[in-house]
Amino acid sequence: MKAKFVKQGDTSLLTLFFAGWGMDANPFADYVDGRGDLLVLYDYTDLEFDASLLSGYDACRITAWSMGVWAAACTMPSIGVEVKESIAVGGTSTPVSDGFGISPAVFKGTLDNMSDKSVEAFRRRMCGGASAAAKFAGHLPARDVASLHDELRAIGEACTRTHAVVPWSKAIVTGRDAIFAPAAQEAAHRRDGAAEIITIEAPHYDDTLLRHVIEIG
Questions:
Q1: Kind and range of the H or E element at 84?
Q2: Rounded Cα distance, 22 and 61, in Å
Q3: Beta-strand relationship, 2-7 and 37-42
Q4: Which terminal Cβ of the chain has fewer Cβ within 10 Å, N or C?
Q5: How does strand 170-174 pair with strand 59-65?
């Protein structure tokens, strides 16, 4: 996976934000965590995590969204510092799964039919409509379709053999999600023993919600 600091200073607390599939740090470049530094993780073509990035930090917070929920769950055992809080938004630790994630048939269809046009349609569904998608287009990830295809293929292969049960401090179910069905999110987090599960009426990607989770918790 790749990593980029959005905020980096001399604080002792770091928030790790595991973004979703197809992302980089661009959509989150102006996010601020008032309690510490902020590191965005993305591109899960591989799950290799550079633990040296946490050197000098006493503790961290984990926030994860979409496919980042799975990536974060797989990565947490290698974090190496105290995790004070963990929040999952709009995703599950079994992202390709009937009943607990995206159905394998839908996932395969997305992978097999990927194009510029299909990615644009995906982003409309992700954002909950054309208006929000147009706003998202103002800070698109600098990723081409080939890289998105490679990442999604790698996720599909890895998530069948890599799964970690993480009892999240808080799991936020996105109640108007057209990517991860809300019922699948809730079922997965109940299965995994999340300490708190709440539903917020938001689409899969909601800038206001993600800012709130990262900046406030």
A1: strand 82-89
A2: 23
A3: antiparallel
A4: C
A5: unpaired
**C-beta separation of 90 from 63 below 8 A:** no
Q: pLDDT tens digits, residue range 116-167?
A: 999 999 999 999 999 999 999 999 999 999 999 999 999 999 988 877 888 8
Exposed, middle or buried: residue 182 (CB in 10 Å: 0-12, 13-18, 19+)? middle
Q: Where are the domains of the chain?
A: 2-215
Taking each helix axis as running N to C, give the angle between helix 104-112 and helix 145-158, from 0 to 180 degrees, rounded to the nearest 10.
Answer: 150
Query: Cβ distance 57 to 13 under 8 Å?
Result: yes
CA terminus-to-terminus distance, the chain: 24
Residues with Cβ within 8 Å of 112's Cβ and at least 6 positions away in sequence, in order, are none
Q: Do residues 22 and 68 lie in contact, with contact meaning Cβ atoms separated by under 8 Å?
A: no
Residue 35: both structure tokens together: 């309690």
What count of other Cβ atoms lies within 10 Å of the Cβ of residue 48?
10
CB proximity list for 131: less than 8 A, separation 6 or greater:
none
The CATH class of 2-215 is: alpha beta
Q: Is 208 helix (H, G, I), strand (E, B) or coil?
A: helix
C-beta neighbour count of 2 within 10 angstroms: 16
pLDDT digits (tens, 9 = 90+) for 192-215: 999 999 999 999 999 999 999 998
